[in-house]
Amino acid sequence: MARIGGRNLWIAIPAGMLCAGVVGTLAYLAVPMVPHAVSWVGDMAYNATHLPPPDVEEGTAQSFATVEGSDCRALYPDDLWSELVWTPKVLLSQTAAAPAGIDQSVVDAVRPDVRVTCTWTVGGTRSISTTLSAVAADAAPTAKASLTAAGYRCDEADGLRCTRTDGSVVNESVLRDGLWITTVETAWHPVDYSARVATHVWG
Predict the structure, then answer these.
(1) What backbone phi and psi angles, to 5 degrees, belong to 47?
(2) Which of 75, 120, 150, 174 has its CA 20 to 30 A from that of 191?
(3) What is the pLDDT of residues 18-59, one digit of tens each?
(4) Is-contact 116 96, C-beta < 8 A?
């Protein structure tokens, strides 16, 4: 095999190994910044196609309860938002539609004042729809009775939390401090999705 004149293998090999080591070290140091970079790019892409959210102090139930027309971005903690936004082929629809997957008898009994409904879909077969609504301060007993009658299992360890599972469809309802969050997960179940949203809203 022909060699290029003036090239010394005794120098080239250690130099190549040194360069590879430097590149590997830089890559290792960059790893902790990857989640922040992903979140930043996701926010930039969202802000480029959406109007600025209303002036809401994120993570406080009182803010969500009193501000009309809350924004989907304000509903999610940063890590969950990035996870959803960067799901391949995902589409987000923001509306003021009534809670999805909730029996009409429950909606009629609780009478939610919808702040925002965020529906994420992937390929038409996987979806998550979450609705944030303001409700009467004394709505919990009525909601519990209606949800239990509709087949939900409820507990009141920290507010009212009710769940119902039908095959690949999981319905979860959380009511606390005048707010009602309902979620329907269809064939798509991010880890602790409802709990992460609730923790963000109620802080």
Answers:
(1) -65, -25
(2) 150
(3) 787 777 777 677 667 656 665 665 666 555 445 444 444 444
(4) yes
d(CA 15, CA 68): 63
77-to-31, 119, 198 alpha-carbon distances in Å: 21, 16, 10
For residues 65 and 61, what is the distance between their CA atoms, to the nearest angstrom?
Answer: 6
Q: What is the pTM of this model?
A: 0.69
Strand pairing class (90-95; 169-176): unpaired
Contact 22, 164 (CB under 8 A): no
Closest CA to 92 of 46, 43, 138, 38: 46
> Tens digits of per-residue pLDDT, 154-195?
999 888 999 999 999 999 999 999 999 999 999 999 999 999
